[in-house]
Design a protein that fits this description.
Keywords: ATP-binding, Ligase, Magnesium, Metal-binding, Nucleotide-binding. The chain is α/β, with parallel strands linked by helices. It has 21 helices and 20 strands. α3 (128-136) runs parallel beside α6, α4 (157-169) packs across α12 (350-366) and α15 packs parallel to α16. The longest helix is centred in the middle third of the chain and has 17 residues, at 201-217. The chain is globular.
């Protein structure tokens, strides 16, 4: 049942917050395997190593500081009026927005409210809510002065969106480029960027309050992703952005981003088996859902790893102006070269395919009348090639991390006096589904043939094929579970360690970190610091044995891992993290099936 009454919201919110604030007494953490506490030379090795990160081989994109000066006071909101915002009372008394004390900022209060949205509004595939929101906002993404690039796909869509936006920024001052991606790693603000810079906390406060007021006054039961999408549209409009790159959230046809009517270009990067309970259980059905972003009279671009004939027919039925492949735009890639997009080369480096798709996208856009209305100049091939080299964080992100450990060779009798520093290579990759995991493993095999020197820190999402993905990892390390460290994030979508072990009993001898009380292991205990503990443990063992550490499996473990590795970047506070993902399980259980089996 959709709760629209303000009184019902208050009651439900009180119950939800009471549940969220229940905390178990924190207890000691123990590193355990089937054989007991992990140790070296008879001593526990769970002390924190001294970690001082070197300059990463790939520097993560920097976020703007939340303490930057706020934007000037905006004029009143006018629907469809670019550059206008709605002034809101700073003292909003929304039942979901307050009650957390004076030490909670407006940003934290509003983002908490956003995360709680799915507790009250059932998640349902469909465009009804977003169409209403977009209409009230004046349909800014359908403004002919705005060129929208819409990106869908099972894998690579976030990377292609980032690369395309980065290339568009090379046009200079004439084009302001908005980017909407998900999920984020450390801060909600990463999802919405303008000219490569995440939006400020002040922008979130001004416009998120506005979106909430619109939903409440018009009785629109918008979900987390719908509100976030509307927020992006509103901010892009207020900031006079004239080129927007949108990444879909789930699927395409019924995704909240698909309310746009005339994109400058629709891109489908790849198709794999994912979210089969929602999108369909075959590649063909999933392809039809992704293909739903193609529009009549608008061009579309297809990546390499997908069922071309299914999507060609889908595009033909929808009346696309032209359906491009990368080869159509760039010419055939030379097999074996760095630009090859043959299946064998793609398994070796999926980033090659993502860069090629983004390069082809710029080629199509440079022929587009809508883009020429903004800037008649064209980028050189060298400028485009440089721009598409960018990668999102945690997509085969390579770091060099110095770790100080005890010098065993010097003897452990006086351990504190004998220490050495070793540089450990660390690779971060979200690899969130079987296809992405296979790509990661293929790249690791190609780059690091000596796979017994790989140490894996693995956390996964509960809705993935846990047995299949963990078997891939076991094959990589020669069926040696001692080289795998299992972790679980605090997010509700994270798979528990017990569920991973149940899915694949061969992992019983791996490393894992759990909450314990009175020395009893509780595999269902959930604490984000288990990620930090296992990253720390893996670094110690890797430093002692000249190994490479791979952190992979889920975006939900990356913020803790990056913090433990010493990467300094803006991160949302625990006030927000406490409710991140709230309502996910209930919204999944009560998922209202849309018509997801048709193209």
């Amino acid at each position: 049942m959709i709760l629209s009454s303000r009184r019902m919201h208050v009651v439900a919110f009180g119950v939800a917050m009471a549940l969220i604030r229940i905390r178990t007494i924190k207890s000691s953490f123990v590193f355990r395997r089937a054989g007991g506490v992990i140790s070296r030379g008879g001593k526990s090795s769970n002390h924190r190593p001294i970690i001082t990160p070197l300059l990463p081989r790939q520097v993560p994109q920097q976020m703007s500081s939340s303490s930057s000066s706020p934007p000037p006071p905006p004029p009143p909101f006018v629907a469809g009026g670019r550059g206008h915002t709605q002034q809101q009372s700073r003292g909003s008394t929304s039942p979901l927005g307050g009650g957390h004390g004076d030490d909670v900022s407006d940003y934290e209060r509003l983002v908490r409210k956003l995360y709680m949205t799915n507790l009250f509004n059932p998640v349902k595939l469909g465009l009804e809510n977003m169409d209403k929101l977009h209409d009230i906002l004046g349909r800014p993404m359908d403004d002919p002065r705005v060129s929208v690039v819409h990106v869908a796909g099972s894998n690579g869509k976030g990377s292609v969106a980032l690369k395309t936006a980065n290339a568009l920024r090379r046009y200079g001052g004439k084009i302001r480029v908005g980017l909407f991606v998900s999920p984020h790693i450390s801060s909600f603000r990463e999802r919405i960027q303008i000219d490569g810079i995440p939006i400020s906390e002040e922008q979130v406060v001004i416009h998120l309050r506005e979106i909430f007021d619109i939903c409440e006054s018009n009785d629109i039961p918008a979900t987390f992703f719908e509100v976030t999408t509307a927020l992006a549209f509103r901010i892009f409009d207020a900031e006079n952005v004239n080129a927007v790159v949108l990444e879909t959230g789930l699927g395409g046809r019924l995704d909240a981003t698909n309310v746009i009517r005339r994109p400058a270009l629709s891109i489908i990067t790849s198709i794999g088996l994912e979210h089969t309970h929602i999108l369909g259980n075959t590649i063909e059905l999933i392809a039809l859902e992704k293909g739903g972003i193609m529009k009549a009279g608008c061009p579309a671009l297809l990546g390499n790893n997908l069922p071309f004939e299914v999507l060609r027919k889908c595009g033909e039925d929808k009346g696309v102006s032209r359906l491009y492949t990368c080869d159509d735009v760039l010419g055939p890639a030379v097999v074996g070269s760095s630009k090859s997009t043959s299946p064998s080369s793609l398994l070796g480096d999926y980033d090659v395919e993502n860069s090629r798709i983004a390069t082809a996208a710029i080629g199509v856009l440079q022929q587009s009348r809508r883009l020429r209305m903004i800037d008649e100049s064209e980028l050189t091939s060298e400028e485009i090639a440089m721009a598409v080299q960018i990668r999102p964080p945690c997509r085969f992100e390579e770091l060099d991390v110095p770790v100080t450990i005890a010098d065993v060779a010097a003897g452990e009798a006086d351990e504190g006096s004998h220490q050495v520093t070793r540089v450990v290579s660390v690779i971060l990759d979200v690899a969130h589904n079987p296809q992405a995991m296979e790509y990661l493993i293929a790249k690791l095999r190609a780059n690091y043939p000596n796979t017994h020197k790989l140490r894996m820190v693995v956390g996964m999402s509960a809705d993935k094929d846990l047995r299949y993905c963990t078997n891939i990892l076991l094959d990589l390390v020669g069926r040696c579970p001692d080289q795998i460290h299992l972790v679980e994030a605090s997010h509700p979508r994270a798979a528990s360690i017990s569920s991973i072990l149940e899915a694949n009993p061969q992992l019983a001898d791996c490393h894992y970190c759990t909450n314990t009380r009175d020395d009893d292991v509780n595999l269902d205990g959930r604490d984000s610091s288990s990620v930090s503990k296992q990253v720390r443990s893996a670094l110690q063992i890797a430093a002692a044995n000249d190994e490479i550490v791979i952190v992979c499996g889920s975006v939900f473990i990356m913020a803790d891992a990056r913090e433990e590795l010493g990467i300094v970047e803006p991160r949302d506070s625990a006030v927000i993290a406490d409710v991140a993902g709230a309502g996910f399980r209930s919204s999944q259980e009560n998922f209202l099936d849309g018509d997801t089996k048709k193209g």
